[in-house]
Design brief:
The protein has helices at about 20-25, 60-70, 80-90, 95-100; strands at about 5-10, 15-20, 50-55, 110-115, 125-130, 135-140, 140-145, 155, 165-170, 175-180, 190-195, 200-205, 205, 210, 215-220, 225-235, 240-245, 250-255, 265-270, 275-280, 290-295, 300-305, 320-325, 330-335, 340-345, 350-355, 375, 380-385, 385-390, 395-405, 410-415, 420-425, 430-435. It is mostly beta strands. The strands form nine sheets. It has a four-stranded antiparallel sheet, with no helix packed on it. Strands 5-6-7-8 form a four-stranded antiparallel sheet, with no helix packed on it. The radius of gyration is 25 Å and the shape is globular.
Length: about 450
């Protein structure tokens, strides 16, 4: 091994550290170290090693320097995590710390990293994972926002308008949908700052050239910066609205056809491959379930299914639905976590049920939360009572379950930023599940 000639010496808070420009280059140009070097990562032309003094915490510097050397993050027990985050922010290394804390998402390798207790007691509406590992939690008219370090930002208060859904446009902006308050003309949707909670602009619904008040429900986003929301107004504004995420302007509206349900949808999902929108209105919001695919290019309903007229038992009540484009199918779940599948290539096909959890029968809690579904990178997730099941493979075999010991049933969960967030109903606590970083060897 040759002698490295790009050695650099630092005096950090009185402690001496020696490293190389090669190691510091791992910090990137946007870091403090990137500003100390020229374009070739040369500190100076003099062969003498110059000592650079930095008046910061030496213990944190040691951890961060080791991170640049090895790509691994080791935090000593006597070093507070928040202190390390503060120092990483100074050096421009927060993204490096975040990347090293947990690995690429894998539902079968998740571990419970921590649990966070909220401010309000119970009755959580929704939890939504942010793109950078943060999340937001809706309780009634209040939305609590957390960054990836689980530092809570100023909450968003909608002044007694119940929040129905939330969605992250990016790491800095959140869209909230809310109920209309009779006589107040409020409700609808707004774009809010994730860091400060300020309202940036509202998404209006226009009907017959007049701006209407409305209740906004389920949300979905497309890759070409369109925002979709179910809408329920007092005139004829029942259906699915479409807005430009960037400008906030309404660009389309799919009106609810007679005998169907769109405006009160529980779930929207944009399908990137087919450029269609899945719309699902589910029991118990309605006495019957309505699932359809909408094509906004020609304002057509290209696929639909409903249980209207069919003999319905509790075992066959659809509680959630999700489209799986790779297999051209829709997965549904009942309150016993039995999965059902419908073929999108067949019009008005029946549900093919797959009984996986008959042991759940007779053991439902007094106040159960209805199952929720999520699909992430080829893995299917289903919440049931106090656990989340993971299904994999072409036959969707149950491969693992995520469960913790307290907090009550899971009322909602969300995946994003390589994390899974699960919101419990009883004690207003949410769990953070992460995949451990891959081993070096």
């Amino acid at each position: 091994m040759g002698i490295q000639k790009d050695r650099v010496k630092f005096n950090v808070g009185g402690r001496i550290f020696e490293t190389t420009a090669t190691t510091l280059a791992n910090a990137g140009r946007n870091s403090l170290f990137g500003a100390m070097f020229d374009d070739e990562w040369n500190l100076n032309s003099d062969a003498t090693i110059i000592e650079h003094f930095i008046d910061r915490n030496p213990n944190c510097f040691s951890v961060l320097l080791d991170l640049l050397r090895t790509g691994e993050l080791y935090l000593p027990q006597n070093l507070p995590e928040k202190l390390l985050y503060r120092e990483a922010l100074f050096y421009g290394l927060l993204d490096h710390v975040r990347s090293a804390k947990w690995g690429p998402f894998d539902g079968n390798r998740l571990h419970l990293a921590r649990s966070v207790t909220g401010q309000a007691p119970g009755d959580g509406t929704a939890i939504r994972a942010g793109p950078d590992g943060g999340c937001c939690v809706a309780h009634g008219s209040m939305v609590h926002v957390y960054d990836w370090m689980m530092e809570e930002h100023p909450p968003i208060n909608l002044d007694y308008q119940r929040v129905n859904d939330a969605g992250w446009v990016d790491s800095q902006n959140i869209v909230l949908s809310a109920c209309e308050r009779l006589g107040k003309g409020d409700g609808g949707m707004g774009l809010f700052s994730a860091s400060g909670g300020e309202l940036r602009y509202k998404f209006n619904v226009t009907h017959e050239n007049q701006v209407k008040s409305y209740t906004a429900g389920a949300l979905s986003f497309s890759s070409d910066y369109k925002l979709f929301s179910s809408c329920k107004g007092r005139s004829n504004e029942y259906g699915i609205g479409v807005w430009d995420q960037v400008t906030g302007k309404q660009i389309d509206f799919f009106y609810e056809p007679p005998g169907w349900s769109l405006g009160e949808a529980d779930k929207l999902q944009w399908l990137h491959g087919t450029n269609c929108l899945l719309v699902a209105t589910l029991f118990p919001r309605k006495d019957n379930c309505y699932i359809s695919l909408l094509d906004f290019r020609d304002k057509s309903m290209v696929w639909s299914w409903s249980d209207v007229g069919a003999p319905i038992t509790d075992e066959r009540r659809v509680r959630d639905a999700i489209a799986m484009e790779e297999t051209s199918s829709i997965c549904v779940v009942n309150e016993y976590e039995d999965l059902g599948f419908m073929d999108l290539r067949r019009s008005a096909g029946s549900v093919r049920w797959s009984s996986r959890s008959r042991l759940m029968k007779g053991k439902m809690p007094d106040e159960p939360c209805y199952p929720k579904l999520a699909l992430h990178e080829g893995q299917l997730f289903s919440s049931m009572n106090d656990c989340i099941s993971v299904f994999c493979g072409p036959d969707w075999v149950l491969t693992s379950r995520l469960r913790r010991s307290y907090g009550g049933s899971i009322c909602d969960f969300s995946i994003g930023g390589d994390r899974l967030f699960a919101l419990h109903s009883e004690e207003n606590v949410f769990d953070i599940w992460e995949t451990s970083p891959p081993p070096i060897i």
